Amino acid sequence: QIFTEMITYADENTMSTMAEMVATGDAETSALIFESIMHQPAEDTYMMEDSGGDMALDFLDNLNQIDSSAISSLYEDNSDLVGDVIESALSSATLNDTAAVSSIISSSNNDEMNSMMFQNISDNDDQSFMGEVFVSVATDAPEIIMAIAAENESLYEDMAKDTDIDIGIVTAASLITDISDTENDNYTTAVIDTTTDVSAKTKKPTMM
Fold first, then answer.
1. 170: helix, coil or strand?
2. Is 46 helix (H, G, I), strand (E, B) or coil?
3. Which CA distances in Å does 183 have to 13, 146, 186, 190, 201?
4. At what angle do helices 27-38 and 55-66 cross, to 10 degrees?
5. Could you tell me the end-to-end alpha-carbon distance of the chain, in angstroms, rounded to an integer?
6. Distance (Å, rounded) from C-alpha 26 to C-alpha 74?
7. 151-207 tens-digit pLDDT
8. For burial by CB atoms within 10 Å, which of 54, 133, 206, 207 has the most?
9. H helices present in the chain, as ranges
10. What pLDDT score does 206 carry?
11. SS3 at position 95
């Protein structure tokens, strides 16, 4: 009841407060808060301008900033409830929410949750949103993109469609190739640098 009232009379600080309660509370409290977010009143005082976005997404964004592992851990314990809140958040997400959404995915250590989120994002009418989130996650956590490519071929193929974004036409396939090449280059450079340092510090025997 108390959480429902908090949501009914929510202001710009409410979602941050509820996120803090989840981060520091027990499983029962967390579940009650997620249920309250999911079943928020049809009419309330929480307006879009208070958060810059949807209430559910604002709550998840705050929770992710407080504890980056919290959402994926809660999803593992209660995938149905947490998944419903995530789907609700993504249903109204726009290009302006790219940073919040990509941060949640990049912070996650749950492959199932990541795939679910990308599946929902791929259904978004604004494909530029999909492109921006994809590139952001690929930059911050390329292993997540590679895991999806290996484990969910159909979703990967959907993600691999050309997407028109600010940096030009980019495909998931070409981006992953670039990431792999960069990692290989960095490894090769590190090996060369290490070898050079060892050679420089080792005195060669000289003839007397």
1. strand
2. coil
3. 41, 13, 5, 11, 27
4. 150
5. 91
6. 11
7. 887 887 777 664 544 444 445 555 556 555 655 555 555 545 544 454 444 444 343
8. 133
9. 2-8, 14-24, 27-38, 48-51, 55-66, 70-77, 79-91, 98-107, 111-122, 127-140, 142-151, 153-159, 172-201
10. 40
11. helix
- Secondary structure class of 168 (helix, strand, coil): strand
Contact by Cβ (8 Å): 115, 151: yes
* Tokens read off for 144: 């997540």
Determine the residue type at 43. E
State the Cα–Cα distance between residues 36 and 131, nearest whole angstrom.
Answer: 31
pLDDT score of 132 more than 60? yes
Tell the residue number behind the tokens 């990692």, with chain if given.
183
Please report where in the chains the tokens 């005195």 appear, as a residue: 203
Of the candidates 20, 19, 23, 37, the residue with the CA atom closest to the CA atom of residue 86: 37
β-bridge pairing 163-165 and 168-170: antiparallel
- Residue 79 CA to residue 89 CA, distance in Å, equals 15
Whole-number Å distance between alpha carbons of 85 and 88 = 5
**Tokens standing for residue 37:** 């977010």
Phi, psi of 83 (to 5 degrees): -60, -40
Q: Under a CB-based contact definition with an 8 Å cutoff, are residues 22 and 33 in contact?
A: yes
Residue 149 burial class via C-beta count within 10 angstroms: exposed 0-12, middle 13-18, buried 19 and up: middle
Question: Mapping DSSP to helix (H, G, I), strand (E, B) and coil, where does residue 91 land?
Answer: helix
Contacts (Cβ under 8 Å, ≥6 apart) of 198? none
